[in-house]
Amino acid sequence: MSKRTSNERGLDAEAVPRRAFVGMALGAAGVCYAGAIAYPVYRYLASPAERAEAATAVTEVTLKDAQKLPTGSALMFRFGPKPAMLIHHADGSWVALTAVCTHLGCTVQYQPERNVIHCACHGGEYDSVTGKNIAGPPPRPLTRYVAKVTDKGVVVSRS
Ligand code: FES
Known about the structure:
Strand order of the largest sheet: 1-10-9-4-3-2
Strand content: 25-35%
Oligomer: single chain
Bound molecules: FE2/S2 (inorganic) cluster
């Protein structure tokens, strides 16, 4: 028959606070782990609304010295967070459009040799004057902006 020494009883008495400490440490680690997963999910879900707000916040962009753009060429620029393009057509007219494809959001490019706006992702095409979708999968036209030529540059605005 064995009898427990006082030292063994002391270890048992310390074991309960150790268990409590380990439990608290695991709980704190669990909270940190949950936060590490939840925060990116929150940012992902919140970002479309924030991006939409940022996109509408910008109403006008001045493109310095863009009035010098040769005819038959285009200039890519950012209108808020989104890419856009300014086209100087051969007849001297100016057209500003968003450069985001309405199909799946790829950035479109102006092709001066064909005078169309082309999306390389799935072959979508748009009219370079009106922005109308004319071929491929894009369901809607490109958004058109107003372009005003001044001495210092070209002012592109929503309306
Ligand atoms: S993303 Fe432009 S055609 Fe599909």
